[in-house]
Specification:
Strand content: 15-25%
Structural class: alpha+beta
Number of strands: 23
Largest sheet: 7 strands, mixed
Distance between the termini: 61 Å
Oligomer: single chain
Length: about 575
């Protein structure tokens, strides 16, 4: 463009040179503006962190800069205050507006022991919370860093555009020089030199260079504002091509909060007696199912001589009676054999309770399916995406949960290495996304075409291994994010085709003198503006916040809380 402008001045075409400089500058300004708007989401996220925080000190409350907050500091929050960094509530009850962080529109009730994230807005209550992260290194700054990394990384289409544009420039310069040389050889240097300048403008790859980046940055920026963190342009583009989704069960499809849902008792025994006996022993256990048993009863019974038998269960005594609590593999179900099989077929983990060598009951515990899981799977199927469940749980439980969710293909009792190997095979056949949230999911997330971690502030290993992370845990973000990426995929393709079409059409018209410099400049710069405007369409948030018309999941994604309980 610079060579063409200088050449136009030397040839005396001052008007054309001025038009070229003006229109090119206008297009560059629009490009900068579009990039700036695409990055506003990041600045908005950073603006959620308050400038100051009130912390408890031995001499009384003290106000310090938010960046000076350190782990273990006690923060004091009043009504309407923003949370300076991640923390755990020590005292007080209130509600938190987390919509800017997790994309969940409903404020959530919080109290002692609940986790809160940086940038959340406190409601009407007063709270004291212990900081679990430094003011400059928390969940919110992590999200911003991930999105900035995405801006720096280029996807396959961006590389394709670069591969086209990079050799195009020297080729066009050579062609322009040859066109000028024709003028010298034919004795009409002025005409052919002018054509050479027009050829330079016509074949300028400006539109091609901006075609993909503006789309990728717009898409990633809008997704980040609604709780979908995409780490790179490559991940964004691959996300738009996904044909298979593999889902972990525990913590992804289910709540990861086991609850007692059924209790079978022997004759003469009550439900409360069985649960009280089990809870007396389980109170000394760290097993995940122990918390479910303890939460199911208020009966307080003391047990003596409690000993855990790793892999089997736990033993002890209550008022001189020997009690055992454990799996059916250790304690034979006896008369409860059919009942325990029924529990297992309904997706429950079974805990047997035995007193003095007589089985007195069976407790069915299940990690309940998330309420939006079935609708999410249906939405994926509506988009033509195949779903698979991968889990380390037993086959009966896995098939029961999968049936409720609407997933037909199930692979149970999988070790982390098994999951990774299967996901790798799936990815070889078709672009595959793996969705998980735990440390055991990290190998599978890394093996997938796109790894998606549920909860960007959750398990570090899962987030590190994933290409995409959701700050919330609402499964409906999955089909919405895929639809958003697919839409961005289409816009990128449109931009590349349009940018190449402009060059293909203008080049011969310029070469044969059909169009002059002013006309080519005008068409070229208008085309660049069109490409930028088209790329900016990818910033529309409904692509993430709502489903395409064909999807049954058209509601707001942000209804499910990840902190505390939703306010009624």
């Amino acid at each position: 463009m610079t060579i063409a402008a200088l050449g136009a001045v030397l040839l005396g075409h001052f008007g054309e040179a001025a038009a070229l400089a003006f229109l090119f500058s206008l297009a560059e300004a629009l490009e900068d503006r579009s990039m700036d708007r695409a990055k506003q989401g990041l600045r908005a996220l950073l603006a959620l962190i308050p400038e100051t925080a009130r912390v408890s000190r031995p001499g009384g409350p003290q106000t310090i800069a938010a960046g000076e907050v350190r782990t273990e500091d006690v923060l004091l929050l009043g009504a309407g205050d923003k949370v300076a960094t991640d923390g755990v509530i020590l005292s007080g009850r209130s509600w938190m507006n987390t919509s800017a962080i997790t994309g969940e529109s409903i404020p959530v009730e919080v109290g002692p022991g609940d986790e809160v994230h940086a940038g959340s807005v406190n409601g009407s209550g007063s709270l004291a919370l212990r900081a679990t992260a430094d003011g400059r290194d928390n969940s919110l700054t992590q999200i911003v860093r991930l999105v900035e990394q995405a801006h720096a990384a280029k996807g396959e289409r961006a590389r394709l555009a670069d591969r086209i544009a990079r050799p195009l420039v020297p080729v066009v310069l050579i062609v322009a020089a040859l066109v000028a040389l024709i003028g010298v050889l034919t004795g009409d240097p002025a005409t052919w030199t002018e054509r050479a300048l027009v050829v330079l403008v016509a074949a300028s790859p400006c539109a091609l260079a901006i075609a993909v980046p503006v789309t990728v940055i717009s898409s990633i920026g809008s997704a980040s504002k609604l709780g979908v963190v995409i780490k790179s342009g490559a991940a964004f583009e691959q996300l738009g091509a996904i044909r298979t989704v593999a889902l972990d069960k525990t913590g992804t499809l289910t709540r990861n909060e086991p609850r007692v849902v059924d209790v079978a008792t022997s004759e003469g025994r009550s439900r409360e007696e069985v649960l009280a006996a089990a809870a007396a022993l389980e109170s000394a256990s760290a097993h995940p199912l122990a918390a479910a048993v303890l939460a199911a009863t208020d009966a307080a019974v003391d047990a003596d001589d409690v000993q855990e038998v790793p892999g089997y269960g736990i033993t002890g005594s209550i008022h001189g009676r020997v009690i055992r609590v454990g799996s059916p593999r250790w304690i034979s179900p006896g008369q409860f054999r059919n009942r325990t099989h029924e529990m297992a077929s309904r997706g429950m983990s079974v805990v047997m309770v035995e007193e003095d060598s007589h089985v007195i009951g069976a407790v069915g515990i299940r990690d309940e399916l998330r309420p939006e899981a079935a609708a999410t799977v249906a939405a994926l199927h509506a988009q033509g995406i195949r779903t698979v469940m991968l889990t380390g749980d037993n086959a009966l439980t896995a098939h029961a949960i999968a049936a409720e969710a609407g997933i037909e293909e199930v692979h149970a009792e999988q070790l982390p290495a098994d999951k990774a190997a299967y996901v790798r095979r799936l990815s070889e056949r078709a672009p595959t996304a793996m969705i998980g949230d735990g440390i055991n999911d990290a190998p599978a997330l890394a093996s997938a075409t796109v790894g998606i971690a549920m909860g960007a502030t959750g398990t570090a290993a899962a987030v590190e291994s994933a290409d995409v992370a959701f700050t919330g845990t609402d499964l409906r973000q999955i089909p919405a994010a895929l639809a958003h990426a697919r839409r961005g995929h289409r816009i990128m393709t449109e931009n590349i085709v349009l940018a190449l079409a402009i060059i293909v059409v203008l080049f011969p018209l310029a070469l044969f003198g059909v169009l002059g410099l002013a006309a080519v400049v005008l068409v070229h710069e208008v085309a660049e503006v069109v490409v930028i405007a088209n790329g900016m369409r990818a910033a529309r948030t409904p692509g993430v916040g709502a489903q395409e018309p064909s999807s049954p999941v058209g509601q707001d994604l942000r209804e499910t809380s990840t902190v505390g309980r939703p306010v009624a």
